Amino acid sequence: MKEEEVPLVRRRSGGGTVYHDIGNTNYTIIMPRDSFDRRTNAELVCRGMHQLDIPASVNERHDIVVDGKKVSGSAYKLVNTRAYHHGTMLIDADLKALGRYLRPPPKNLVGKGVESVRSTVARIRDYSYTVDHLSFCEAVADQFRRAHNAEYRPPIELTEAYMNEYPKIREYYDEIRTWDWIYGQTPDFTHRLQKQFVWADVDIHLQVHRGFIIDAAVIISAKDLIAVASRLAGQLKNKQYSDTGVGEAFSFVGMNRLNLQERHIDQLAELEQWLVSAL
């Protein structure tokens, strides 16, 4: 994702990671908390799909499926007297990219969060040559108006100008783009990173809490780098689990407080580059 400049966004509701591209449409239904029901909302979306001649149904997990394949997942949040239920619809998404970006984490990355349930997915374009973003939105909106006896309202485009008129929307938009929000509240996890360099074997263990490295162990097989390994482990503690944090941890190399030889400095530069790419 980093190499291909795919942004990572963390939402307020629960649920697993979702892949978004121009072929994926999101929908949201906001309601009083007492009226919230996942199946009812999913069935409303299904009725919209039936208008488009797509034989969709709701499974036992409240996912929307076609021929047993998942085309839409959803999540929700309950706040005081209100609730919202939002979901995705894979209209014409790039499923190869979806599989690539949502691949399971490596075995050396162990987290304490709840694992997502993996499902076979499909696109509704595979069941309709004419469906697109606009026709899906219109069909679901039509079913919403019928179900709630609501009048038509023109859509609102969430532009910079619109957000500037509503400070709370702007505040929320800005908050979810920060490092503290995206990474600072992630579940605890441990990450073991191993690499065989020409000059030594490296084994690094990181323990991460709320996006910060709270403990680290570094083993470098080269005898002349034992002191460097110990120093690096100490430097990694209390740093962000990020490119920036790793860069700060390696800052002692540039200061050369350990009187490192030039080849050692080059080796540590290679180590830093690898560690950044491996996070």
TrEMBL record:
<dbReference type="GO" id="GO:0005739">
    <property type="term" value="C:mitochondrion"/>
</dbReference>
<dbReference type="Pfam" id="PF21948">
    <property type="entry name" value="LplA-B_cat"/>
</dbReference>
<protein>
    <recommendedName>
        <fullName>Putative lipoate-protein ligase A</fullName>
        <ecNumber>6.3.1.20</ecNumber>
    </recommendedName>
</protein>
<dbReference type="InterPro" id="IPR045864">
    <property type="entry name" value="aa-tRNA-synth_II/BPL/LPL"/>
</dbReference>
<comment type="pathway">
    <text>Protein modification; protein lipoylation via exogenous pathway; protein N(6)-(lipoyl)lysine from lipoate: step 1/2.</text>
</comment>
<keyword id="KW-0067">ATP-binding</keyword>
<dbReference type="GO" id="GO:0017118">
    <property type="term" value="F:lipoyltransferase activity"/>
</dbReference>
<comment type="pathway">
    <text>Protein modification; protein lipoylation via exogenous pathway; protein N(6)-(lipoyl)lysine from lipoate: step 2/2.</text>
</comment>
<keyword id="KW-0436">Ligase</keyword>
<keyword id="KW-0547">Nucleotide-binding</keyword>
<dbReference type="Pfam" id="PF10437">
    <property type="entry name" value="Lip_prot_lig_C"/>
</dbReference>
<dbReference type="InterPro" id="IPR019491">
    <property type="entry name" value="Lipoate_protein_ligase_C"/>
</dbReference>
<comment type="similarity">
    <text>Belongs to the LplA family.</text>
</comment>
<dbReference type="GO" id="GO:0009249">
    <property type="term" value="P:protein lipoylation"/>
</dbReference>
<dbReference type="InterPro" id="IPR004562">
    <property type="entry name" value="LipoylTrfase_LipoateP_Ligase"/>
</dbReference>
<dbReference type="InterPro" id="IPR004143">
    <property type="entry name" value="BPL_LPL_catalytic"/>
</dbReference>
<comment type="function">
    <text>Catalyzes both the ATP-dependent activation of exogenously supplied lipoate to lipoyl-AMP and the transfer of the activated lipoyl onto the lipoyl domains of lipoate-dependent enzymes.</text>
</comment>
<feature type="domain" description="BPL/LPL catalytic">
    <location>
        <begin position="1"/>
        <end position="152"/>
    </location>
</feature>
